[in-house]
Design goal:
353 residues; alpha/beta; Dihydrodipicolinate Reductase, domain 2; 9-stranded mixed beta sheet; 24% strand; binds nicotinamide-adenine-dinucleotide
């Protein structure tokens, strides 16, 4: 198998996970470039990969005949670097969120189509076995008509987490707080499991504990799907630890849910059972990162090699972003937001106190 020539753009925290993944997939990839304006980070990333060049500007990558660029930069740079890469006919796999405005997300989807390259967005938690299994069960109609869904996230992001970063906690670079950074995975999972378009979004966000930053640290919302399912979400990142995320979906014939990566199924008249994720080959980083990055990256490489559709492509990656932007808009305008809606870059939220 010809090895794919890849570059890592952004060698910060999550890049540790990629380093481990690339080491495990060394028969499939050649890590050609490590890029970060903080050169020491790119240098540290490149260590251990033969012939990997250390660069401080992503544009220098374009001379290295790349197959895939992996982006793990501040959120506002995803569309800029991603679009440039796609215009250079390079496939891109981008960390969530793909962009911080829906206009940018739409433009990226269009560029991927025009250039005939693959655009993938990392939502690794969809790949967890239990999540895949309950998706199948819902698709087979085992739950009947879906009635309600809920997700509950209470995590902890310290003041240092924000003060040590030059982009987290800012509207113009991170694009939001707990919703766009932490809760986005559970929002993506729930909308994917429900499997229909959103009709309206009604929510509020606030900053209650992280007064040194401008973005929200708490959010709640109701999201109405066209198939009738009402999704209720709560998210905060001012809890004392990263508690397991809880998701539940209720249908006319039973309930399913996830507690972090452990899925459970309780269909009416049948015995309750749990589904554990079998894969534990990655042990890098905090446990809430999960261990499915490798599964999604391998899947993306397969799409590139075999010209197959990408499972979480731009259109899929945009869905959670649309819900999040709808919640911000609903909170700012204090009203229910019907989809589609006019989106914009958010610069501040009105605090409720
Ligand atoms: N999928 C997950 O579970 C998960 C977990 C954590 C982070 N993330 C995502 O990964 C991305 C990065 O987050 P992080 O926590 O690693 O942030 P980070 O700040 O630790 O790392 C980002 C890196 O990008 C670098 N950078 C800035 N401008 C750049 C440029 N022009 N070119 C190349 N590099 C540049 C920074 O110097 C920094 O080293 C974000 O999109 C974040 O949401 C995803």
């Amino acid at each position: 198998m010809k090895k794919l020539r890849v570059a890592m753009i952004g060698c910060g925290r999550i890049a540790q996970m990629y380093k481990e993944v690339f080491s495990q997939l060394k028969d499939q990839v050649e890590v050609v470039c490590a890029v970060d304006p903080k050169e020491d980070r790119a240098q540290a990333f490149a260590e251990g990969f033969e012939n990997c060049v250390v660069l401080t500007d992503y544009k220098q990558c374009f001379q290295y005949d790349l197959d895939v660029m992996h982006l793990a930069t501040p959120h506002n740079l995803h569309p800029i670097i991603g679009t440039d890469a796609m215009r250079h006919k390079i496939n891109v796999l981008i960390e969530k969120p793909m962009a911080i405005t829906l206009q940018d997300a739409d433009a990226m989807i269009q560029v991927a189509e025009e250039e005939g390259v693959k655009l993938g967005i990392i939502f690794q938690t969809r790949y967890v076995k239990g999540c895949m299994d309950i998706k199948k069960l819902i698709q087979e109609g085992k739950l009947g008509k879906l009635l309600t869904a809920r997700s509950y996230l209470s995590w902890s992001r310290s003041d240092e987490y924000y003060s040590q970063s030059d982009w987290k906690g800012t509207w113009d670079k991170e694009g939001g707080g707990v919703l766009i950074d932490q809760a986005i995975h559970s929002i993506d999972r729930v909308q994917w499991l429900i499997g229909d378009d959103v009709e309206w979004i009604d929510g509020t966000v606030d900053n209650r504990a992280h007064h040194a930053v401008e973005v929200e640290d708490v959010a709640e919302a109701f999201i109405q799907f066209k198939n009738g399912c009402l999704y209720q979400l709560y998210a905060c990142n001012c809890y004392s630890y990263d508690a397991p995320i809880e998701i539940e979906i209720v249908g006319e014939k039973g309930k399913v849910g996830l507690k972090q990566d452990l899925a459970w199924v309780h269909l009416d008249g049948e015995e309750y059972y749990e589904i554990r994720d079998g894969y534990d080959g990655l042990s890098v980083g905090p446990s809430y990162w999960g261990c499915s990055h490798i599964t999604q990256i391998k899947d993306f490489y397969r799409s590139v090699r075999e010209s197959l559709p990408v499972f979480v492509d731009g259109v899929e990656g945009r869905k959670a972003l649309e819900i999040i932007k709808g919640i911000y808009k609903s909170s700012i305008e204090r009203k229910k937001i019907y989809v589609p809606f006019e989106d914009s870059l958010i610069t501040c939220i009105k605090s409720h106190h």
